[in-house]
Specification:
Length: 370
Amino acid sequence: MKNNKADVVQTEIDAAFLYEQLALSETNSSIAALYSELAKIEIGHAESILAKESKKGEAVQIPGPSLRAKTLNRIGKLFGYEYVLDTLLQTEKSLAYKQMNDKQQQHFSLNGNETNHVKILQNLIHSQSKISSEGLAKLEGRRHKSIGGNALRAAVLGANDGLVSNMSLIMGVAGATNGENAVLLAGLAGLLAGALSMALGEWISVKSSQELYERQMALEMEEIKTNPETEAKELQLIYIAKGIPAEQAKQMADEMIANPTTAHEILVKEELGIQAEELKSSAWTAAVASFILFAAGAVIPVIPFIFFAGLTAVIWSVVLSAFGLFLIGTAITLFTGRSIWFSGLRQVLFGIAAAAITFGVGKLIGVNIG
């Protein structure tokens, strides 16, 4: 079987595996049933491709889930399956794009079914006959959380920022000083300055967002108390926009507005797109995490200069940094699905290029000063 089709089959199998894991982790039976149905469809797609290859006389066998899929499942167990849901959405978009591209190349007409799974994941909340208003709010909250921000992705990128920025700084100073003791001081200063800057920026970002959301939520509660009829109408329109019949939407809205606390939670999620649980996160916790993540990457190019000096330290710094960049590129494949070698080597290439430029500039400045 050609590599292209083998990749598609593996992608379908991985998607089926992850849908099943989502179904097992889902407490709402209706949503879990939908995930299970999606898993069966993905298996069917893979079996259909393999059946066509089998007719050509090729020996085919359904593969098991890949290491990437299993790793994503472990991440889901540790950090929540919102990460997995977000990744599946991107996978479905990729499969839909490939299917449409293949049809266009073969001059087949598009029938609109190519993006069905993307629509299902994006609009699963429209299944009003199967999902209660409570499940609806829960699923919508999950969608906002998965799309709005990914802490794991931020962790990878934070370490990458620290490594690339400090390696570039160190190489610039090494070029100007031939790798003498000043490089260690510059590297440690760059690590501390960068990590503190990241921490402060994260603290301000989280704190400002919390203050803004709290203000918006307070205004929404005031509107519910002073003008419940209008807010009930807003809820009804929101549900209608999701495909729920007008009468059922009105009934759901009336039930919600009868309890101001519940109505407030729903409106905050549906109308404002705010997750109340996100306000519980600590700005200080986010700041400390940013400091640690940036420092973890920034310390890598510094380590050799603790033990060596001159060209030896520069070479070891580049080697360790390249290894760190490759690992970061490998981690990024969890979200992109690209080849480990492609993503890892690309990360190394860009990082080394940045370091080479600053080394050259530092060398030029050092020579001129000398």
